[in-house]
Design a protein that fits this description.
The protein is mainly alpha-helical. The chain is built from five helices and four strands.
């Protein structure tokens, strides 16, 4: 029981340190996407996440919120979901932001499964770190992912090939 108390204290300290950059918390996945997530715009700038042109993703976010119990506080029993599909419809950024929401807001574990190491390296280095982690203030200070220095100047140890 003492170990659990130490872990909670450690997590609370990390959350408090990260809060200086602004809270990551959000009540629902849809709220998180619309208020915290950012997407790369043409020209390399980042702007707010939007469902404009992607109405199916809004429906998926609402369905995930129903399953997670985001509005009721009661997750659906025995429910599960997976994100699968083809390319170029926003699935990767949606899925990565969903994973960050699960971790930073609900404190759940999540997995993103890819077929080979090269694709893992590419997703982490080209999408997860620059397009998700570095775009949400306070988030990089809460994470340990890959050898890099984030915008906030924090070093993150390599966890990609563990």
């Amino acid at each position: 029981m003492k170990q659990k108390g130490k872990l909670i204290t450690l997590l609370a300290d990390r959350l408090n340190d990260a809060a200086a950059a602004g809270p990551v918390m959000a009540g629902s996945l849809k709220e998180f996407l619309l208020t915290k997530a950012r997407v790369k715009l043409s020209g390399g700038e980042y702007g707010p996440y939007t469902f404009e042109g992607r109405p199916v993703l809004e429906h998926i976010a609402e369905r995930f919120d129903l399953i997670l119990g985001s509005h009721t506080g009661k997750p659906l029993e025995d429910a599960r979901f997976d994100i699968c599909g083809g390319a170029q419809w926003g699935k990767t950024i949606f899925a990565l932001n969903f994973g960050i929401y699960l971790t930073a807001c609900l404190f759940y574990n999540w997995g993103y499964y890819l077929p080979d190491d090269d694709l893992v390296q590419g997703i982490v280095d080209a999408k997860l770190r620059p397009d998700v982690v570095e775009q949400i203030p306070g988030l990089s200070g809460m994470m340990q992912l890959g050898v890099a220095e984030g915008k906030e100047g924090r070093k993150m140890p390599n966890r990609k090939r563990s």
